[in-house]
Amino acid sequence: MKTKKILLGALAIATALTGGILYAADHIDSPNVTNQPNDITDLYVFRGENSNNLVFVGNTQGLMSPGNTATAKFDENTVIEFNIDNNNDKVEDLVIQCKYDAASNSIKVYGPVVPSETGTRSKLEGSVTASVAVTAYGAAAPVTATSVNGIKVFAGPRDDPFFFDLTQFKKIIAGTATGFLPAGTANDTFAGTNVMTVAVEVPKSLLGGSGTVNVWLETKKKI
Amino acid sequence: MKITTIKLLAIVVGGSLLAASCKKDDATPAATVYYQQQDQMARPAINTVFINAAAKDSFNTTIPSQQAAKFDYKFTNTLTAFGYVSNALGLGKAAFVGVLSTDVLSASTTGVTTFFDGTNVLTGRALADDVIDTELLLIFGGATGASNPPLTSDNISSNDKAFNTSFPYLASPW
Prior knowledge:
The complex is a heterodimer. Chain A is mainly beta.
């Protein structure tokens, strides 16, 4: 009991040190991008239904109510970029870039392609490898597309797949609770909220590497 | 006065010449459009928990290969404040900081992809993975994973909607 209190005290102190309110995954975590279309919420990388494929999911614009989702849009000036390091030096060897085109209300995919420069500045690389119309809110089924080289793509609003009792976590951090709530009483703060998703499924043969790749997601804005 | 007029005229003529040349010469390559990094993430909640508000924008625009050198001390300080000694992976503080501070998500291209499924660790992140419990366990659970039980699970173990088995896998919006 005493240990727990000390730990919670330490947690509160650490939180004060790390800056107060904690958000989850990456939702609204960054002053510069909070509530902007380039605010990343989550990255998922997993084996596809076809195990020869790897799926990249990039979510942005978190905690949207159904009402807000109806009017949510991708941003024409933002590139959503999956960075892939296939030789474990933590530098991207390939990028998959997803860019919204307002005129056609579609997402254009570039890559996987070797970028002409690495780091915080990018340009669209090579030519479009896949393209899909943005699925409208309320659509009966998701609109997907598959390119000739086997790249599948989807873009549009989805249920936020993230789950966490963030509210209780904040109480713990604030020192007004000593632990999480029991199952059945705990609440998923992300229940009933949506995100804007870009999903790209890629044949593993296009990714290189020898068994493992390192992945990170970036949003980049037109300068 | 006259000089001004001439100058203006020159500008107008120059401008129209420029406009004309742009129209005529479609082969002139357009200036390259660049995009500058705004936000970044790999493993869930890492930046969120370990990087303070004032440094978040900086962390979000620091490339992974430079994150450790720049931010290791923040991870160390936070783990120290948590009273961290070791975890179920047997990682001492320095080793755990080494894993955490370079924020990339490793994904297997040959096997199971999961954040943690009881056997495989950090081989990807599937939609249904309870990543928060995994992280709470590794941060607060101690060497056996049995320490601090009120803090090692949020008791939310699944999403509010079922996922699909086929692309794009995520559930339809609310």
